[in-house]
């Protein structure tokens, strides 16, 4: 076997001792205790390697808008209204430049796969979508980008929106999104989206709900349609903050329903924390759906970045290690749950996106991020820095360790 590259002395989450990974043609060709050959070698120094972080939910088209907002930051409605005004002026070059800033950071934080949501409607037209199509090919060297087109401001109440979504699907959108909570007829939107997803044979990824009233909701409507259309395993819901406000028994029923129907879930801790509970002065609810508890009950679950430096979330660095740590703090996860939290930014989202070439195993894409830690527990507690990474066997980034400079003794 001819290898292009060998990574030695690499700790993984699966193997009890360091392994060597042999790479050929951008894929993992061998994983052994030792590999002896003439290929170039990178010594991982006994550090932890992961197959890259997977971000299932990022709004690249409306990222990095802070400088141009000029308004007081408010609630969800205010954020949607502000971006609705701004996006009419988005150009392809503008979207591409802001998306590029995000993708640079995501790659440097070890993310190798991403699903981006992109607004397609009469204000944005197809400009943001076409810009992100360019980003998808411009950045293919460092990250696989999946484009999910969606109607942020409603579908049935927005004449011309559906035609644009269909045009985007015709032009190569990977996934169809939705946002029933901003539609005047949420059920009609769900019906139409499930029909379109079946017609174009694409996955569905819905912004399902974004409030704390657990007495109503559309989770059951989504599960029922997922079964009726035979789309189990290809439907995901995002936010679903109502799940954070349920009684234990209602939560158990919802988890069983999601797992049974094959509906996956993404929690977006930064935005959920920033926008909700603003009517309260004290004792603000956390409002973040306990994704690791859903995963424990058999639901495919992930946590993701969502918004970056815009009216929905005025900060963000695209680091999923940091996001997982934020989540663990909010969800009060101790060391016995660190592994489960790491799953929420690696294996869980890879399953949500049906990435069949993901993982540190023979035959998978040679995607790798090496963290400045020996094992998963240390990496998670330390919010370990990514040191370098590979995308399809090629070095995609490196971040030298900080060097301290004490005075001479
Ligand atoms: Zn979102």
Explain the overall architecture:
- The protein is an alpha/beta fold and 409 residues long.
- 33% of the residues lie in helices and 22% in strands.
- The chain has helices at residues 76-87, 92-108, 127-138, 161-170, 186-200, 219-228, 248-261, 269-275, 291-296, 320-330, 338-343, 347-352, 376-382, and strands spanning 5-11, 19-24, 27-32, 41-50, 53-58, 111-119, 144-150, 175-178, 203-209, 235-239, 263-267, 301-303, 368-371, 386-391, 394-398.
- Strands 5-6-7-8-9-10-11-12 form an eight-stranded parallel sheet. Strands 3-2-1-4-13-14-15 form a seven-stranded mixed sheet, with no helix packed on it.
- Helix 6 runs parallel beside helix 7 (248-261).
- The protein is globular and about 65 Å long.
- Bound molecules: zinc ion (ZN).
- The site of zinc ion has 6 residues, from loops.
- Zinc ion binds at residues 57, 59, 117, 207, 238, 306.
Which ligands accompany this protein? zinc ion
Q: Report the β-strand fraction as a percent range.
A: 15-25%
Major β-sheet annotation: 8 strands, parallel
Q: Approximately how much helix is present in the residues? A: 25-40%
Unreliable residue stretches: none
- CA radius of gyration is 21 Å
Number of strands: 15
InterPro entries: Amidohydro_3, Metal-dep_hydrolase_composite, Metal_Hydrolase, Metallo-hydrolase_Enzymes
Domain Amidohydrolase: 41-130, 154-374
Pfam family, one: Amidohydro_3
Protein name: Amidohydrolase family protein
